Amino acid sequence: MISARVLNRNPWLLWVASYAVWICIALVYAATMYRFGKLFYHPVTFWEELKVPLVNNLIFGTLTPIVIRTGLRYPLQRENWMSRAPLYVVGAIVFIAVHVLLRILTYPVVDNMTKQVFPVGWPLFERVFLWDLVEDCFYVYVPVLLLSHLVLYYHQSRQRGLQASQLQVRLVQVQLKALKSQLQPHFLFNTLHSISALMMIDVERADKMLSRLSDLLRMSLEGSSWQETTLNRELQFVNAYLEIEKMRLGERLTVRTAMEPCTLDARVPHLLLQPLVENAIRHGVSKMMERGEVWISSQRQDGQLHLQIGDNGPGFSATLRESSKHGLGIAVTQERLRGLYGSRQMLQIHSAPGKGTVVHICLPFDTSPAQPEYELEFIHGLV
Questions:
Q1: 306 sits in which H/E element
Q2: CATH topology for 201-364?
């Protein structure tokens, strides 16, 4: 179906389609009548059968775009049908009158009995008008007018669907931005608290932590409008955060990574890893007297990106896991994953008392270009 937008962009297309349709109808009608004539031994040629329908339909082909344009511009709707209906009746009369006038002016009207040509004038006009009244109105004018309304309603329906989709996308973007904004002050507060505690013990280390925090803030501000980035950039951000934590915890914290090289260009939500690593340190390593360990791994499998963030901390039971809602980091991460990927994502938490905690995330594997690279070197030494 030709949409209203296409008609506005290519007005000639409506005229081409109109003539093509009406000429085809004339050809089909003439072929049918010619076939019937041969069956009943009427010596009539195909051209003789075609002439009158072709003239009529070429006139209809000329008037049809005008009727369609009128219907599109002045549609019959619930709030205006009482005022528009009389106009449509007047339009039908004008349509029939113009058709009849063009018909008698372009092709002679012949009496089938006497084979005499009727003279052009009011008697002929009146006779043909009354003869064509029902056919022109109900078989041509009304169907064409209905077609214009179908085109209009189809276009409006698509527009409403498009606007609804755009509103839904904008709503999801706003929700994701709001969720992400909850994480930034969260880790900033915790980092500042760590720096404040360290300043009482080691001013030099606290100064280094402030320097790394400025890098973190710069990366966070640079990506404030991003929803997705690459796994490699997420690792850069997490490594900057882990440097701060290693300054605070010293030898008590060991970090191990096992990243498949093919996964480093995969797209992941911005600020995906940092809150999960922070949870592993706060609820795992920091509660241990001996050395604690945090590990991060990535793997591509069956078109999916699998990420794991784990620790060897005290862990917790399933009952505690359900009641605590896993903290702000986990809760916000789950909401963001649902908003970005819908049912194509998965986040699972595996934990048991005395056996540590592992967060397993599964995302669609996508390496299409994301945001520009951070202007920071990849931080080594966290192996």
A1: strand 304-311
A2: Heat Shock Protein 90 (3.30.565)
- Return the half-sphere exposure (C-beta side, CA atoms, 13 A cut-off) of residue 106: 15
pLDDT confidence tier of residue 232, bands split at 50, 70 and 90: very high
Rounded-to-integer distance, Cα 61 and Cα 19, Å = 5
Alpha-carbon distance 233 to 177, whole Å?
A: 19
Q: What does pTM read for this prediction?
A: 0.53
Per-residue pLDDT reduced to its tens digit, 273-307: 988 998 898 888 888 888 899 999 999 999 999 99
CATH 3.30.565.10 domain residues, the chain: 201-364
* Secondary structure (3-state) at 128: helix
How many whole angstroms separate alpha carbon 3 and alpha carbon 68?
12
Question: Are β-strands 292-301 and 253-259 bridged in parallel, bridged antiparallel, or unpaired?
Answer: parallel
Residue 247: φ, ψ to 5°: -65, -35
Query: For residue 57, what are the contacts with CB-CB under 8 A and spacing of at least 6?
Result: 22, 23, 25, 26
